[in-house]
Amino acid sequence: MNFPYTQKLGVKIAGGMMLVLATTLSFAWTPTGSMHTARASHTATVLPNGHVLVAGGTGDSIGALASSELYNPASGSWSSTAEMNDARVSARAVLLPNGTVLTMGGCIVSDCLGQTTRSAEIYNPSTGRWTVTGSMRTAR
Known about the structure:
By secondary structure, this protein is mainly beta. The protein is 0% helix and 37% strand. It has strands at 10-14, 18-22, 29-34, 43-46, 52-55, 68-72, 77-81, 92-95, 101-104, 120-124, 129-133.
């Protein structure tokens, strides 16, 4: 079977707190370690060292999560890292050129009905800490 696009590694976070990896060689899913906190509508950012930062989202409770975790693909394990300053659901995150992660906006409650935030913060993988930065003009 020929595919026009090749991808070395795909990452998908699935329900039930399981991260699975797919490779184009076998097209098979392989179970790996479970996250410490079940979550949906979170951010997931691949860091320069290959680890995956997962932050925020909504868990088993009704509210937004401030917790964040790191996935190590070499060991298949998760570790907790610092909590964000603001809990957020459906936020956006981007890896910055200096290797830090800017996370911004999102909802402050899990249903996202008009309760969005303007706040933004930066995760520093070297220190494992979140720092508040300037807010956006408009909540989103």
